[in-house]
Design goal:
The complex is a heterodimer of chains A (711) and B (309). The two termini of chain A are 54 Å apart. Chain A contains 26 helices and 18 strands. In chain A, strand 9 and strand 10 (175-176) form a beta hairpin. Helices cover 51% and strands 14% of the residues of chain A. Chain A is of the alpha+beta class and 711 residues long. Chain A folds into 5 domains: 2-62 and 117-206, 2-Layer Sandwich (Alpha-Beta Plaits), CATH 3.30.70; 66-113, no CATH class; 213-336, no CATH class; 352-553, Hypothetical protein af1432, CATH 1.10.3210; 584-708, Isoleucyl-tRNA Synthetase, Domain 1, CATH 1.10.730.10. With 309 residues, chain B is α+β, with helices and mostly antiparallel strands. Chain B has 8 helices and 9 strands. Chain B has helices spanning 8-21, 41-44, 93-103, 166-174, 195-213, 216-234, 250-269, 275-296, and strands at 25-26, 53-62, 78-87, 113-117, 120-122, 127-136, 139-150, 153-154, 160-165. In chain B, strands 1, 2, 3, 4, 5, 6, 7, 8 and 9 form a 9-stranded mixed sheet that branches. The chains are: A alpha+beta (711), B alpha+beta (309). The interface between A and B is large, with 45 and 38 residues.
Chain lengths: 711, 309
């Protein structure tokens, strides 16, 4: 048994890549060792800004010997067959053994693979791992050809046993592995020789390097909160920033500085964003005033002046940054209080897309559309239009120019400053949402109207100019926009005919060119103008996205297909569609549902075959007087009952009631098939039964298209 | 540790003597308007091909859109970059760089120096590399890049490139709040001059020129001319009929590429280039840079040997 220590020491590794790199190193080496026939007890990988390290404990000293026998051609087989066998085994004819087999003598190859020493395997696996390491981006340096994330300087590769530590002989592109590393860039000097992982980690700590990222972030969090607490302040939690700064230092030292009083009136989001994005500072809040009054920065060094020079420098940089922010804020407020006209006019100069006009054109379209959508979502049309007209204004503000991630939020501040209604200000911020699949969905009606109008304008616009997403390419984030519409509609339970809305929206865009797919479609399906076909095609896209969305919610795509029906049935009313699909999914999960589905399929198959054979459609005229069995009569009765219940239930959109009425058909249908033969010798009886099956089909189809359901 | 420098020029002189002592050829600025030190042919072209190279120089750089009439404490439309390029990049390039900071009075035991990921890309030069922005006490003081590609060509060997933003770095070292207040020469001399004494007026003049004065129709014409001239110069037969030698006019052609790039920047400052057109202009300059790079690797300085063909 031996313990393995590997360290890859390089120039600074980007913080965001460190954690995955450590995982990859661990996995690639461990898998490689196991594949080569070694076993180990445990492994752990680590990363700092300048090194990746791996400790493997309880590694076997050598791989097991393997004896492999392979059966070859018969003795006396053609020369070519034997030659091929020798090639594939790498043996000579003399090394083969002839043995008796069922059909006579056959050549056998006995290949002995002796066990290999761990150090030989480690060397091989390490070299392969380094040469094929999955960095998101890698580079060459100097005159070499090796690729690594940044220049790789040295490698530790040692196996430690009770007898001591031994360097594994391996050299990669001129870098010879050894047992030596270096400590902190500035707070440690000279080489560090190590004999085991414990020794390595301990010596690194003495040389001012915390090997474990979790130790660094725990130290940062502890020291920073303590520092803030001592002053009666509280640190604002920011996990992403904590992870990032933990990857920027080997020896974290936490320092706190003050934000100049002249900046304390800036919106807290502006302070926080400026400090986080530009300086990687944590914000510190004063619970008594509720304001951010200080910052915490994490540095990589202990200095004789206890960080005084560093904090003074950082403070100076922050003052310059916040002076910019304050200048932007004050300048923006002047424009906002004057009614934002400078910005809304300015949007005329900003191209949204060369075929879809300027941002101002876009705003005009969204405003008109928001007005149309407003009544469907319970919003005041005037407010919805007003909100849409100013929702993009902040894109021209100086603050958003500097911090694009504050778009929307600044719009809210500025709309409030301009004295606009609270609903309008909220819509400025909320109309971008939801951006991601887990992003919160706005519920304020004005926000919802503008959010829908914004996304539908984008989608129909790019559809009209034939810039649809293909494969992995979705440069205008249209899938995200469609998902946004879906979530807005479903979360708020909005009832609307999406197709009509999109038809209106498409008509505000340039007339689509009739060519390619659109041309083909229009030649096959006459009866609509190009805009209608674009809206229709866009709806298909929505339905596809809806399937993906519902699949994540546990509803199968075939269940949705069964509820889509045809156009006229209102399948562009997503809320209704989903309600129906949910009821159907629940129904199919029940015992009755599953059995009825089988009964339906049986009825449908028999019917379809008969219709194909006879060349007629059995759709009408089943008469109970030709019923031969009580079970058959019972089915007639059951169908009458179900029909009477389903029709009003469907009209009332009570899909649960319709499904349970349909479930009532299960027992009678099963009973009917048990006793009755559809293809009876008597033609009258056969016709009557086929017409009866047709009733099952019609009634079931009025609830959902069960032919689409799999299984 | 040397004492802290007292003027802008002392910082430049110390960098010059530091990199001179490390074996770099101390070149002079390129005599054309460029947006950054990288555009100097000593970097762009010399990063190509197999021949070793080590140079350092100051490069006056122009970013017409950054003009603020001399009022902004940090922003200038004309400023200085200090550029170092070494090919192949030496293994101790980071230590060399830290040595240069010590030389200008930045002691790494008192300051917080950090290498923060920053991948460099120049869409106009068709170039990219990996490296860092170097932070000193939270301020970016240099850009450190290992060139991977220039003009669409893989860099073999790889050059290490350092770019110092001289004004910002000097303001920090000298503890100055506004660039125009920075001592340019020694403040103890009989005729002390500040940065503002030298550049305040020109910043005003060029700001007005860049934003309002420059004649756009003419700039557009000159852009087209420079583009055509660059292409024309590279279309000549490699053999000069007069001398019978192989003479490819790469540098004259590259001058036209630089010119086109600066004209584009001016047009941008004048606000006459739309968002969509922008990409097209950048693409046109990149195409010129690529042509020049293609031609340079066919010259002696680009590592070309006739026997290799």
């Amino acid at each position: 048994m031996a313990d393995l220590l590997i360290e890859l020491f390089s120039e600074e590794i980007p913080a965001r890549m460190q954690a995955k790199a450590a995982d990859d190193l661990g996995k690639l080496i461990a898998d490689g060792l196991v594949e080569a026939g070694l076993t180990y007890a445990s492994a752990a990988a680590f990363a700092t800004p300048r090194r990746l390290a791996l400790s493997v404990e309880g590694l076997t000293a050598e791989s097991r010997a393997v004896r492999e026998e392979r059966k070859g051609p018969a003795v006396g087989a053609p020369e070519a067959a034997l030659a091929g066998f020798l090639r594939s085994t790498g043996l000579t004819r003399e090394q083969l053994v002839a043995r008796d087999d069922k059909k006579g003598q056959v050549w056998f190859a006995v290949i002995e693979k002796p066990g290999r020493k761990a150090e030989e395997i480690v060397a091989e696996v390490l070299e392969t791992t380094v040469r094929s390491f999955p960095w998101p981006k890698s580079m060459r340096w100097g005159a070499g050809s090796l690729r690594w994330v940044r220049p790789l300087h040295s490698i530790i590769c040692i196996l430690t046993t009770e007898a001591g530590a031994q360097v594994v002989p391996v050299s990669i592109d001129g870098i010879v592995a050894g047992n030596v590393t270096r400590g902190h860039r500035f707070m440690s000097a000279g080489d560090i020789t190590v004999t085991s992982f414990e020794d390595y980690e301990a010596k690194l700590k003495r040389a001012k390097v915390f090997l474990r990222a979790e130790d660094r972030s725990a130290a940062i969090w502890h020291d920073a909160t303590t520092l803030a607490f001592a002053q009666g302040l509280e640190l604002v939690e920011d996990k992403g920033l904590l992870a990032e700064v933990s990857g920027l230092v080997e020896w974290p030292v936490v320092l706190m500085g003050a934000i100049g009083p002249q900046f304390l009136d800036l919106p807290p989001e502006v302070l926080q964003t400026s400090m986080r994005e530009h300086q990687k500072f944590f914000s510190v809040r004063n619970p008594r005033t509720g304001r951010f009054e200080r910052f915490v920065t994490v540095v990589n060094i202990e200095t004789p002046d206890n960080g005084a020079t560093i904090i003074a420098g950082n403070g100076k940089v922050l003052t310059a940054r916040l002076s910019d922010a304050k200048f932007f804020w004050e300048k923006d407020l002047r424009v906002a209080k004057a009614g934002m006209e400078e910005w809304t006019r300015g949007l005329e100069a900003v191209t949204f897309h060369n075929k879809l006009g300027s941002q101002a054109d876009r705003v005009a379209r969204i405003a008109a559309l928001a007005r149309e959508i407003a009544p469907m979502v319970g919003a005041d049309p005037d407010l919805a239009e007003q909100a849409a007209r100013v929702a993009k204004a902040d894109l021209r503000s100086a603050m958003v120019g500097e911090f694009p991630e504050l778009q929307g939020l600044m719009g809210r501040y500025y709309a409030s400053a301009a004295g606009m209604p609270a609903e309008v200000a909220a819509a400025c911020e909320e109309h971008y949402a939801p951006l991601g699949p887990s992003d919160e969905v706005p519920s304020a009606p004005v926000s919802v109207a503008v959010a829908l109008a914004d996304k539908i304008d984008t989608l129909t616009g790019f559809w009209a100019i034939d810039e649809k997403p293909t494969g992995s390419k979705d440069p205008f984030a249209l899938r995200r926009a469609a998902l946004g519409v879906i979530r807005l509609v479903l979360t708020n339970g909005i009832r609307c005919r999406l197709l009509n809305i999109m038809d209106c929206a498409v008509r505000r865009h340039p007339e689509p060119e009739v060519r390619g797919d659109l041309g083909n479609l229009m030649s096959i399906l006459p009866g609509g103008d190009p805009q209608w076909f674009i809206a229709r095609d866009c709806l298909d896209f929505f339905q596809d996205r809806l399937k993906v969305f519902l699949k994540d919610q546990g509803i199968r795509h075939d269940v949705i297909d069964a509820c889509l029906g045809d156009n006229e049935a209102g399948n562009d009313d997503l809320t209704l569609l989903v309600k129906r699909a949910e009821a159907l999914a629940a129904f199919l999960k029940s015992d009755d549902g599953e059995n009825l589905l089988q009964g339906f399929k049986r009825a449908n198959n028999i019917l379809t075959q008969a219709e194909a054979k006879d060349g007629v459609e059995y759709s009408y005229g089943a008469d109970v007087k030709f019923a031969e069995y009580p079970e058959e009569v019972a089915l007639f009765t059951a169908l009458d009952t179900a029909e009477a219940a389903i029709r009003p239930a469907m009209a009332a959109e009570d899909f649960g009631a319709a499904m349970s009425a349909m479930a009532g058909l299960r027992a009678p249908t099963d009973a009917f098939f048990t006793v009755a033969q559809v293809n009876s010798d008597k033609q009258v009886i056969r016709r009557n039964r086929l017409n009866l099956l047709s009733r099952i089909r019609t009634i079931c189809l009025s609830v959902a298209d069960l032919t689409k359901v799999e299984g | 540790m040397q004492e802290t420098p007292r003027s802008f020029q002392e910082i430049i002189l110390r960098l010059q003597s530091f990199w001179s002592s490390k074996g770099c050829a101390i070149l002079q600025p390129y005599d054309m308007e460029v947006g950054a030190g990288t555009f100097h042919p000593a970097t762009t072209l010399r990063a190509l091909g197999s021949r070793a190279w080590a140079a350092a120089y100051v490069q006056p750089s122009r970013r017409p859109t950054d003009g603020r009439y001399g009022e902004n404490p940090n922003r200038l439309q004309h400023y200085y970059q200090y550029q170092v390029i070494i090919k192949p990049s030496p293994p101790d390039m980071q230590d060399l760089y830290l040595g240069s900071l010590r030389a200008i009075g930045i002691d790494p035991h008192v300051h917080d120096l950090r290498f923060v990921e920053d991948d460099w890309e120049s869409p106009t030069l068709g170039a990219w590399g990996l490296g860092w922005e170097v932070w000193c006490d939270g301020m970016e003081v240099s850009q450190f890049t290992y060139f991977q590609q220039v003009g669409g060509h893989d860099c073999r060997p790889v050059s290490g490139e350092l770019t110092y933003g001289l004004e910002r770095l000097a303001m920090y070292v000298l503890g100055v709040g506004h660039v125009m207040d920075m001592p340019f020469n020694d403040p103890q001399t009989p005729i002390p001059l500040t940065y503002g004494d030298i550049f305040r007026q020109t910043e005003e003049e060029y700001s007005r020129h860049n934003f309002d004065g420059a004649e756009t129709a003419q700039l557009l014409r000159h852009f087209e001319d420079a583009e055509a001239e660059c292409q024309r110069l590279l279309a000549f037969d490699e053999i000069d009929p007069k001398t019978g030698k192989r003479i490819i006019m790469v540098h004259p052609a590259y001058d036209q590429c630089i010119k086109a790039s600066h004209l584009f920047n001016l047009l941008d400052a004048r606000g006459v280039i739309s968002v969509t057109e922008r990409q097209a202009y950048i693409g046109r300059v990149r195409a010129l840079a690529k042509l020049c790079a293609d031609a340079f690797v066919r010259t002696e300085a680009g590592g070309f040997t006739p026997a290799a063909t």
